[in-house]
Amino acid sequence: MFTVISEQSDFLVINKHAGVHFHSQDGTAGVVATAEQQLGLKLYPVHRLDTLTSGLLLLAKSSDAARDFTELFSQHRVQKYYLALAQGKPKKKQGRIAGDMAKSRRSQYKLTRTLDNPAITQFFSHSVAEGLRLYLLKPLTGKTHQLRVALASLGVPILGDSLYGGAAADRGYLHAYELNFNFRGTDYLFRCPPEQGQEFLLPQVTEQLQGAWFSATGLDWPV
Predict the structure, then answer these.
(1) Catalytic residue chosen out of the listed positions 10, 50, 100, 170
(2) Taking every annotated instance into account, which residue ranges of this chain make up the domain Pseudouridine synthase RsuA/RluA-like (predicted)?
(3) Burial of 18 (C-beta count, 10 Å sphere; 0-12/13-18/19+)
(4) Which SS3 state, helix, strand or coil, does residue 190 take?
(5) Could you give the count of Cα atoms lying within 13 Å of 161 in the half-sphere of its Cβ?
């Protein structure tokens, strides 16, 4: 369900596997409960990942640390970067996607044209194969399903994301790639390339992650 990336005195960073529930449900322990059980720790979640999403998840070790992290997240002082794969050609290849989020049918959300309390996502994309693009996503707000709705609004739903019309695949191709923050006076940067999914493991994708793609975007991405 997960692998440990780093254990610090106040928090733990794990790599959640794709298809694993965040919360316990249907009689099955979620990733947080499983981590507590396997590691013998009381853990406090301060953000979450959707079931289909893999990647970096930060868990506080105390209520005091959780309170401080919650404050950092609420002030958008934790920089988060995600990777996604999608088929097709987007309406635009880079830039920002902004709009209010509204509930739609079948537990879906949709992006509206109003900007009263918008979800804002910065993105850059690169072609990695015929009809397949790699996306680097930076959510500037924290809304439910924000990244999934953002790419769907461009006409390129995430590969494997059946809820939003993504093509069938062996997993949902959304991965929490980096966390970057200062906690109690110390700077931390955690980066975790995707380890699951045959499309994420294509040589064309791994070459982009190992090469100069990030610095070539001209946007505020990790380098």
Answers:
(1) 50
(2) 10-153
(3) buried
(4) strand
(5) 27
To which H or E segment does residue 133 belong? strand 132-139
* Count of all residues that appear for the chain in the document: 223
99 Cβ neighbours under 8 A, 6+ residues apart: 111, 112, 113, 114, 115, 118, 119, 153
Q: What are the structure tokens assigned to 42, written together?
A: 């009381």
Q: What span, in angstroms and rounded, lies between the C-alpha atoms of 145 and 111?
A: 10
Name the CA dihedral angle for 22, 183, 119, 137, rounded to a multiple of 10 degrees. -80
With helix as H, strand as E and coil as C, how does 56-84 read?
EEEEECCHHHHHHHHHHHHCCCCEEEEEE
The torsion angle over the Cα atoms of residues 217, 131, 51 and 112, rounded to 10 degrees, is 70
Structure pTM? Answer: 0.93
User: Is 10 one of the catalytic residues?
Assistant: no
The structure tokens listed for 87 are 């088929």
pLDDT tens for 76-120 read 999 999 999 999 999 888 999 999 999 988 889 999 999 999 999
